[in-house]
Amino acid sequence: MSPSHVARSFRRHPSLWSLVVVVLAAAAWLAFAAASRSAASSSMPGMNMSEESMRRANEAWFAKHPPHTFHTTAAPVDSFVTGLTTFDADGNAATPIDTVTILVGQTVLFKYGSGVGHTCINGTGPTDPNMGTLFDMPLAMASQDFMFTFTSPGTVPFFCNLHVGLGMKGCVIVNVPAGVGGGPSARAGFVTSPWPNPSRSSVNVRFAMAAPGHARLDVVDAQGRRVASVLDRDFGAGESQALWDGRDERGQHVATGVYFMRLELPGLTQSRRVSITH
Predict the structure, then answer these.
(1) Would you say 195 and 70 are in contact if contact means Cβ atoms under 8 Å apart?
(2) How far apart are CA 230 and CA 94, in angstroms?
(3) Are strands 136-138 and 203-209 parallel, antiparallel or unpaired?
(4) How far is 148 from 96, CA to CA, in rounded Å?
(5) What is the DSSP code (8-state) at residue 177?
(6) What pLDDT sits at residue 44?
(7) Of 34, 143, 158, 162, which cross-links 46 as Cys (Cβ 3.0–4.6 Å)?
(8) Beta-bridge mates of residue 185
(9) 151-208 tens-digit pLDDT
(10) What's the CATH code of the domain at 211?
(11) 234 pLDDT more than 50
(12) Where a domain ends, among 113, 141, 175?
């Protein structure tokens, strides 16, 4: 059909112009949507990764951040279950970030439900300087389910390293029981002995502050030389937790032997012996 015939057709049928505008607008919208999906998938970890790629990514993560948690056998009062890209606690897939509220001393179950390559790490995301201080665990199969007992009040966010860009996050709010004051602890120093002891890698530590203040926890060898600095910052009153990953200040695994966890609090210094075996 010649251009003149096309022009005459549009003059005889003006509604054709509206149809053309609609078709062109629809085509532009589809092109924009496709570009947006492509940009989003390229910027979100886990969106386009194969199962093998996610497996390798998790291996690389845990090579730098050894899995750890404070193991417990207490009965959980609530739970999170993994979905494809969610931690589900309320059975509603539309909830942006599922949150459970518990009391100090209660336990939460973190359970595998579905999806591939999941991890469960306390913190707001991979750039959080305090990530992994409580737990840093794979959660990609049922055998990796774990429970955690929260011993201090506060808000504890957590995330999946591979799917945090897709919103795979959760949160635990830990409250003090009604009628129980949140003031200074009656005791200060190590709450329990470091454990496991002996250990092949990481060592868990629980300590208490009688009042808000600065706490420092170092690992020293039998000659008193500092091997690693585990923490050096301010804490509130009450119990807190820390983890030594079994590495020295250069990031290397320490040799088999006896070491001491040295805790310095305002007006108090304590040491506890630990043995590292390989």
Answers:
(1) no
(2) 39
(3) unpaired
(4) 23
(5) P
(6) 43
(7) 162
(8) none
(9) 878 889 999 999 999 999 999 988 877 554 444 444 688 887 788 888 888 888 888 8
(10) 2.60.40.4070
(11) yes
(12) 175
